[in-house]
Specification:
8-stranded parallel barrel, binds 2-(acetylamido)-2-deoxy-D-glucono-1,5-lactone, alpha/beta, 43% helix, TIM Barrel, single chain, 22 helices, 20 strands, Methane Monooxygenase Hydroxylase, Chain G, domain 1, 683 residues, 3 domains, Chitobiase, domain 2
Length: 683
């Protein structure tokens, strides 16, 4: 989906030929030389003169691309997309990349996107008709791409980091357009195509040059919650979403998949393996690393050769499906219980340090017997039993000293669900584990009591810029509701790609634009709805929060209270009414306008409740207005209607079986309900 950018004034796309010819002739006449063609550019590429002329008069805001690119600048006017476009991929460009390019061009109005081969390029070299728009797709060092980038005067670093890309969209002096999508590797080329999707508006591609690469190596999600695991369809949808937002990691670790944890020794039955196979293929197509996790700590005998072999056999079976990344999850087990006498004999009486010794032994065995023996397998990952906090502990000391240094260790922050993660926290944790940590971020997960009746639709926030220098990556443990988790995941995609430039509000809006297919009314409705699900609990027990409930509504209610207290009662009511009406209408607008049906389905009970709470707020304002007019009977009637709506809203519950804690859904709780109560006493 390509969100339009209504805030960006678009200049009419135009051809460069006339201007370029004029400038080239002028410069050539003055200097007596061929100043129109830079040494490193093909003769018919955009010229320095074109570029300078255009840069001089192009000061409109750059397009918004999410995740935020490292560098982006105007190269010149937008490049019109004609009905017929030639796409010239280098050998080996994958189908998913070409599909993304074709989709983007089609969204821009192309009706005939011809994917050509080297012969097309040869025709062009012979001077046969050059297509009005040529899209080159491939590696940054492939000759046609390198020439096109040089023609755009885009200074691509000699060593573009892994997954990086350069993109240039520009007009040429013969009136044709060129778009170069050049990756450091296959993922980079795929990401260039994802950026292209977001540069399309009004039948043209923004005339920009982009040089980009990610800040963190691992970016994505860990399906690691308790409760109903995602379905295969939900996972496939999420994997495609990961690709679109340049998220490259999905860790498969659903606590309630019995073969992952309780019955970890048993091989997956054939139908489950077939499902996993589909996921692995979808992950590959979307350049997502599918990490298979197994969680044997509930029953394993660490020192038992049979159990070790069962664990390796489990990994091998999934390796055969094409998985090349593995994790051993040892979270949420009792480190002071042995499951066999042999472990007591091998490691002594139960203690956290003894558990760490047993785990290090097991992991070192997996490393040697499986990872080292399987070429192309990524470094092994593990979730330690002691996975939160920054203090050194006997457990960590053993891990630090005995665990193979190649094994990556996950960490959740200072707490299980930390309100913030700072650079100092991450550095302290790295010191205790003896390696940089890989963050398992529980901020969105809604599987514990404090999240009962909640969706977490707050912006992804309070993760400190600069973390990319101290962690190997971040994966979010999302909600039981897969599609609703996209709101936080867009933020995580933006943060992990470019933490230094991260703006939570911008990412929040980008998520709304994605879900709304760019429709401005739907975006506003979504942002009003997100606000009522902004409360992000942090503690499993205490009720502490990392983000407050309904900050936008709360601010408007404060304005109401001030105006009311100052005597401007009508002003108070009129000031609040537009947002009250926005809330009341939001569910209908969202249901009609959101292009992601799974998101609407996930949010169903919350949308129903929001409509009722919104109507209750509007009706309460009617009651206040009647009271101000001195019509006490009408005021009472309105307040009674509002109370009835609240009663209906409060009876709406979570979808049975969908989330672990089930209960009444909450909407702006502590803010909206309190105001309705308070309002009744005002007149
Ligand atoms: C945890 C679990 C996680 C669960 C979360 C919230 C880790 C490493 N493990 O401790 O599976 O979803 O709490 O209940 O976070």
């Amino acid at each position: 989906m390509t969100p339009p950018r209504p805030d960006r004034p678009r200049r009419p796309a135009r051809r460069l030929a006339a201007l370029a010819t004029a400038v080239a002739c002028l410069v050539a006449a003055c200097s007596g030389g061929d100043a129109a063609a830079p040494e490193d550019a093909p003769e018919d590429a955009v010229t320095p003169d074109d570029t300078e002329a255009d840069l001089a008069d192009r000061d409109d805001p750059l397009p918004v691309v999410t995740p935020t690119p490292r560098t982006m600048r105007w190269l010149g006017p937008d490049v019109p997309v004609p009905p017929q476009v030639a796409v010239r991929p280098s050998p080996g460009v994958d189908d998913a990349t070409l599909a993304a390019v074709t989709e983007a061009l089609t969204a821009a109005g192309a009706t005939d996107v011809a994917v050509e081969d080297a012969e097309g390029a040869a025709d062009e070299a012979r001077g046969d008709d050059r297509p009005a728009l040529t899209v080159l797709v491939g590696g940054v060092d492939d000759e046609p791409l390198a020439e096109a980038l040089a023609g755009a005067r885009l200074e691509v670093p000699a060593e573009l980091p892994a997954e990086g890309y350069a993109l240039a969209a520009y007009g040429r002096s013969d009136g044709t357009g060129t778009i170069a999508l050049a990756g450091a590797d296959a993922a980079g080329t795929f990401y260039a195509a994802q950026t292209l999707r977001q540069l399309v508006a009004d039948g043209a591609v923004a005339g920009v040059g982009v040089i980009d690469h990610p800040a963190m190596r691992h970016r994505g999600s860990v399906e690691g919650f308790y409760g109903s695991p995602w379905t295969t369809e939900e996972r496939l949808d999420l994997l495609a979403f990961h690709g679109r937002f340049k998220l490259n990691t999905y860790v498969y670790a659903p606590k309630d998949d019995p073969y992952h944890r309780d019955r970890w020794r048993e091989p997956y039955p054939a139908d489950r393996l077939a499902e996993l196979q589909r996921l692995v293929e979808a992950a590959d197509a979307n350049h997502v690393r599918f990490t298979f996790a197994v969680s044997p700590g509930v029953s394993i005998c660490y020192s038992d050769a049979g159990d070790r072999e069962a664990l390796v056999a489990k990994l091998r079976a999934v390796h055969e499906l094409g998985v090349r990344s593995f994790s051993i999850a040892l979270d949420d087990i009792d480190p002071e219980t042995w499951h066999c006498e042999a472990d007591r004999a091998a490691y002594g009486g139960p203690s956290t340090a003894a558990a760490a010794r047993a785990q290090a032994d097991l992991l070192n065995h997996v490393q040697e017997a499986f990872v080292d023996a399987s070429p192309g397998v990524e470094p092994l990952q593990m979730v330690p039993t002691d996975y939160r906090g920054t203090d050194d502990t006997p457990y960590r000391q053993v891990l630090r000293e005995e665990l193979d240094p190649r094994v990556e260790v996950m960490w959740t922050g200072r707490f299980v669900v930390p309100e913030e993660i700072t650079v100092d926290d991450a550095a302290a944790a790295a010191a205790t584990y003896g390696r940089p940590v890989f963050v398992w971020d529980n901020t969105p997960v809604n599987d514990y009591p404090a999240t009962e009746g909640r969706l977490v639709l707050a912006p992804y926030d309070r993760r400190e810029p600069g973390l990319s220098a101290h962690v190997t990556g971040i994966v979010l443990n999302p909600m039981n509701q897969a599609a609703a988790s996209k709101v936080q995941l867009v933020g995580a995609a933006d943060f992990t790609w470019n933490d230094e430039a991260y703006d939570p509000a911008r990412a929040h809006r980008a998520a709304a634009e994605h879900l709304a297919g760019g429709d401005p009314g739907t975006v506003e409705a979504l942002l009003a709805f997100f606000d009522l699900q902004n409360l992000a609990p942090t503690s499993l027990v205490s009720g502490a929060v990392s983000q407050p409930q309904a900050p936008r509504l709360a601010a408007l209610l404060d304005e109401f209270r001030s105006a009311w207290a100052s005597g401007d009662r009508r002003g108070a009511i009129d000031g609040l009414r537009p947002h009250a009406e926005r809330i009341a209408a939001a569910p209908e607008v969202i249901r009609a306008g959101v292009t992601d049906p799974a998101f609407v389905a996930d949010c169903g009970p919350w949308l129903d409740a929001t409509a009722l709470w919104g109507q209750a707020l509007v009706t309460t304002l009617d009651g206040l207005a009647a009271g101000v007019d001195g019509d006490a009977a009408a005021a009472d009637a309105a307040f009674a209607t509002a109370a009835g709506l609240v009663e209906q809203a409060s009876a709406i519950r979570t979808i049975p079986g969908e989330t672990r804690p089930e209960g009444p859904v909450r909407v702006g709780d502590g803010v909206l309900d309190e105001f309705l109560e308070e309002a009744r006493g005002l007149v």
